[in-house]
Amino acid sequence: MTGWAIQLLDFVARSRMAHQRLWYQFAPVVLSLACAVPLAAQTGRFEGRTIAEIQYEPALTIDPVDLERFQPLKKGTALHADDVARAIDALYSTGRFTDISVEAEPAGDGVIVRFVTESKWFVGGVNVEGKIGTAPSRGQLHSSAQFTLGTEFRDEDVSSAVDNLKRLLTANGLYEGSVTPEVERNANGQQVFITFHIHEGKRAKYDMPVIQGNTLFSEDAIIRATGWRIPLIHWWLKASQARTRKGVSGVRSKYEGKGHLAVRARLESIDYDADHRRMHPHLTIDPGPKIEVQAVEAKVSKRVLKRYVPVYDERAVDTDLLVEGRRNLEDYFQSKGYYDVEVDFRVRPPQNDLETIEYAISKGERHKVARVEIAGNKYFDTPTIRERMFITPASFNIRHGRYSDAFRKKDEENIAELYKSNGFRDVKVATRVDDDYKGKSGDVSVTVTVTEGPQWIVDKLEVAGMAQIQRQDLPVLASSVGQPFADVNLAADRNAILTYYFAHGLPSATFKAAWQPGEEPNHVNVRYEITEGERQYVRRVITSGIRTTRQSLVDKTITMKPGDALSPVTQTDIQKRLYDLGVFARVDTAIQNPDGAAEHKYVLYNFEEANRYTLNIGVGAQVARFGTPSTTTLAAPGGETGFSPEFSFDISRINFLGRGHTLSLKTLYSSLEKRASFSYLQPRFLNDDKRTITYSLLYDRVLNVRTFSSLREEGSVQVSQTYSKSLTELFRFAYRRVSVSDVVIPVLLIPQFLQSVRIGMLSTSLIQDRRNNPANPSRGIYNTVDVGLADKVFGSQRNFARVLGRNATYYRVTKQIIFARQTQFGIILPFNAPAGLTAQESVPLPERFFGGGADSLRAFPYNQAGPRDIGAPLVPGGPSSPPTGFPLGGNALLFNNLELRFPLIGENVQGVLFHDMGNIFTSISNISFRYSQKDLQDFDYTVHAVGFGIRYQTPVGPIRVDLAYTLNPPAYNGFGGTPTELLQCNPNLPPSAQPSFCTPTRQSIGHFQFFFSIGQAF
């Protein structure tokens, strides 16, 4: 053996004591070196020879900067065994190698050192393919594989994953399912991608279970409790893991409902009949004794006992649970005013399979918290302290006030913590309860006395150990000079500093805090010592899993670049923005080999693209007073109660052309409206994440205005700009053709009203939404302003400006009572009217304001508010046609809605009291707050309605039923005949010569209005 090999063996022997865990890794190195030095056998030794070249076989995957740091051997320097050992240690510490061996061969007077390595592989992504149902879902399958992105890959983990997936399929009745793994290695970042091909096969059905134990109930009753079989027809359902668990839970619930709280129902096993594809569950049931919890000496409802005695939740009876129940009941009664309550319990011996637990409750005298006083507080005012207290004086909402020993202790702790967090380290809080306040029996006074003590102040703050981060870059620290000194501030500073270091690529930073008294009493000097550790950098960002999405779309979103500090905060922020693209079902991100010592690390993003097509089909209905133009009668211009079914069909194609754009088609078909819209949405317009542009085509035929039906054919382009979470602005240009048909008023037969009109309008909308829940808000505000201009410069045949604003606010009167209000105001200002038309008449009927209905003004049926037909000259200066009373719309709008929302029945049924007021007005100059009409031709006054509504909460929003009573509905002259009879009325004849049906009849909007819809009114 050569002297070089002997020296290396000596090094290994020494390393074995210091590095025993690496012994079996170094042993192959020794053998390799011993066999790789034939020249050394002739020359005698390599120790001290000059290193002519360092080779790596294969080429190392370590970043060159890290390699320079880890490799103590340098070309041109002398070779020493200790340096070789350090090099091996350093390379192993990177965590990227499973084996390292070193070979040496002479090169002239020097030596060539060759590192032969075997690299690790890391998980780059896991994909599940195949026809995947809902049980198990794709996400469940992915989780069951138990691979973590960026961690070391081992071949044996694939076999474990296959076993896990097969167990999951079997648990869901897919006994015929198969799992085929596919492993693909990619040298780019030493990544391994695992794909599991799933073939589910046919799903098994449940069959008659095997039931064992003292069941008490019949077999049929237990089967009904499982829900595995359809009642009456007795068809067995298809199996799933969730349904199996729910079935066992259903059996337990059945026994618990009969008082067997300690029931044990277990699924022991499942037998599978492959020939008939049936599952036979084996259930073992031990009902245990019937347990009854009673309250004696005081009346307590079963609901209260179930809520406060935990034996119902834990399904067990033991002393700890009974003691907890006693404590809960004491707190409950004390919160109801029985401050002297005493609760005890006893367990009766079982009799006839019945175990009785009795809670003996002595309530004592009922008290009322008449006054809560806070004394001794100087630093904090009383309202600041009161908002942290549970103890509450009697009020309208809390009749007897709120007090208990638990509340008292909690309040004392909360107040003390408030003071301690502001430097009052010696604060004391005590509570005194005085009976017979002001001589009135049962009234108590609660006095909370605060002894503040001195406030401790920070005189000096020293931060040591900062080298890679500048002191001024740190966030503002709570323990700054002159600020209160408190332990909670030290903890806050620790979190702030370590979070900052973590976010800037220094995850191993540590923090120590110390303090000592200052020169003055109650003043301290604080010292923070930071050990920064090594900084980590981004070596490269590697993306995988992209199939149809363009790489450029992802690259624009990933702002992390090679050489940047490795910030997990930035990493997760990028993940969020990738989700916001709306084209990925899953975005996984990780740092590859996170525990390795290398400073430069790969950041991984693995994607699963979402389904590109989304199909929605909806069915709904409206019930209210509305109507469509009639060819048989004009007798009800105010509308009639009707039923309108609605059908919708929507289809969307996301990620169009891989750009993240969306194509969508939305349709609606009902007796009131037929609508189809096609849109193309382009997010991140002009490379702004908060800006989108939408191109749309619209066909909309509306029939719920009894005067006419309107048709709108429109093309538009809209830019949406988001300024903040709550503020958005829309810029829109629309070019449309509007027309009317099914007209029922003779004056509308004039060509200027019948002809199609082209409208070109440029508009902008500002939307501010600070509601906590847009579907059912309970607090916040909602403001919108829409301003539009139709002018000939935009290709419009009519000229007018349009403004529509809305302001809604939501307040919590109490925890469960909500006061909501909304005001809407709109005006249309026509100008440059065509010849033969007045300014008001120049606005096409479909462009005017129409109102009334469940979502605007509940004083009217749908679209029945505002001016009505009172008859008009068929030719200028000529006789007028008979009045019909049909709505014509207006050029001004003012609505105000008030609602008081409160719980009615349980948690899902809410009641509403409301008041609506407003109207559609002829023009802005005609807006009036008058309460009554001047005559039957006056519609420019304010109409009021009050009413009551019910809201039933559902996952898609509240189902709404409203009954309104209109206080001052409008009356008008109408026509009781048919459209044909109306045309027979000759305005040139005197009234005595007219047919009888030409005589106008007095009509009015009914006092009662009924609405049924989905969603809140506003």
- Topology, number of strands: 40
Measured distance between first and last alpha carbons: 92 Å
Helical content stands at: 10-25%
Order of strands across the main sheet: 23-24-25-26-27-28-29-30-31-32-33-34-35-36-37-40
Shape: globular
Tally of domains: 8
CATH architecture grouping of the largest domain:
Beta Barrel
CATH top level label of the largest domain: Mainly Beta
Low-confidence blocks of residues: 1-44
Rg from C-alpha positions? 40 Å
- Largest sheet: number of strands, sense, barrel closure: 16 strands, antiparallel
User: Which homologous superfamily in CATH is the superfamily of the largest domain?
Assistant: membrane protein fhac: a member of the omp85/tpsb transporter family
